[in-house]
Amino acid sequence: MKTIVITGCTSGIGHTAAEHLLARGHRVIGGTCEPGAPPAVEQHHLQLADLNSVRTFATELSHIQIDALLLNAGVQAYNVDARTTQGYERTFGINHLAHYLLARLLVPQIADGGAIIFTTSATHDPAEKIGVPTPRHTNTDWLAHPEHDPNLDQKPITAGLRAYTTSKLCNIMTAQTLATQPEAVARNLRIHAYDPGLVAGTGLVRTGPFPLRHLIWPILSLLNPILKGSNTLTNAGQTLANLAEYPIDTGGHIYCSLRKAKLVGMPPSLMAQNPAACEQLWQESAMLSANGATYTSEGRGPSYESHEPRGL
Fold first, then answer.
1. What is d(CA 88, CA 94) in angstroms, rounded to the nearest whole number?
2. What is the residue extent of each domain of the chain?
3. Under DSSP, is residue 198 helix (H, G, I), strand (E, B) or coil?
4. For residue range 77-94, what is the model confidence (pLDDT) as tens digits?
5. 216-258 pLDDT tens trace
6. CA 138, 143, 147 angle in degrees (round to 5)?
7. For FRET with 289, which of 85, 94, 138, 186 sits at 20 to 30 Å CA-CA?
8. From CA 45, how far away is CA 68, in angstroms rounded?
9. Sheet-wide strand order for 3-7
10. CA distance 52 to 58
């Protein structure tokens, strides 16, 4: 029996993955802030829009050895107006920053050979030509505070969708930098950024405009069998569960995409292949996640002295 920690298990891909893992006899611990998780999931409160909640959640798990950490939760908004508790743009704060911090805080609890999986999206890559606004940059000040961005999209829906695709780019860049950290290398941690493809029924567009929810998305669901990169909810969730459970050959690639129910390792977008940009994102995210708190390298309590999160 393995111990799997997952965010975003109250609906969609995470819910399906949790059901598969429970059916296989594993212990599943969910970070949740709303109902909907499979009944057998051990739930701990986790509000990803509040970094203090992320720290509390990590502390509650500090005595547990974790075999796989699935950083799966995500939101998609249609503007960049909402803010996290710390004052950051909400999509960036939840999809990237909270999961960046949680990964770093829980690294000490990951078993040797264990897995850390970020759920990302092919929408991060302009070469995929998916038809959504793609990332322009990974300037964390502009992402956390869109009002500082001199080139912020004027249409709210465009700005919101670009915030989403950029957060998914940040997930990949974080996974790639995490995989190079000495502790991750020494302990042979399996780290992947997983793109489940276009999946209907995840609830991701539940707050979207009426035409998207009731016209476009249902049509896409009907076209699932023929659309490039589309997968069923069952396939997407089962593949996430498989990544948690055992090593899968992705040809040495950290980024992997589910294409017609087959997991394929591949290079991510050109922006994600820039090691200097990945390292800069890593360091700037450390500063943002500290958010004025003081931590020490000696322990888990609120007495740190550096801006680096506990763990790596």
1. 9
2. 3-290
3. strand
4. 999 999 999 999 999 999
5. 445 455 545 555 667 899 999 999 999 999 999 999 999 999 9
6. 135
7. 186
8. 19
9. 42-45, 27-32, 3-7, 66-71, 110-119, 190-195, 255-259, 262-265
10. 10
Tokens of 286: 């450390």
- pTM for this entry: 0.88
Which residues lie below 8 Å from residue 72, measured CB to CB, with a gap of 6+? Answer: 6, 7, 8, 9, 13, 14, 17, 117, 119, 240
Both structure tokens of 155:
């249409």
Distance CA 121, CA 184 (A): 23
CB atoms within 10 A of CB 280: 16
Tell me which residue has tokens 């986790």: 46
Residue 57 has which token pair? 């959640």
Dist. CA 6–CA 241, nearest whole Å: 10
Superfamily of domain 3-290 in CATH is: NAD(P)-binding Rossmann-like Domain (3.40.50.720)
CB within 8 Å of 164: residues ≥ 6 apart: 74, 75, 76, 77, 91, 95, 121, 123, 132
| Amino acid at residue number 217 | W
Altogether, the residues listed in the chain come to a count of 312
Residue position matching structure tokens 């594993």: 26
